[in-house]
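Running low. Invent one:
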Amino acid sequence: MVERFKRSRSLRKVKVKVPGGSTVVHYRRRKPKGAKCGNCSATLKGIPRERPIKMTKMAKTKKRPERPYGGNLCSRCMRSLIVERVRSQ
């Protein structure tokens, strides 16, 4: 029987081949849900689904797209917002 904390469904089972040649089961944390657009709730492209500790170690350019409102709005909503602002001027 595995350790008690590993019996949880919150951990996922990953089969890993170890240097001895055998395959063993490792228990890893599940990935969080993807980031969503603040306007239309669509999943954002270019943003990795990683746990916060891994996101802090990642480079800033890998965390979100390099464009206005990158990481907050999807490209469609960003485009419509910019067009709307230009038309209102």
Remarks:
- The beta strands are 11-17, 23-29.
- The radius of gyration is 20 Å.
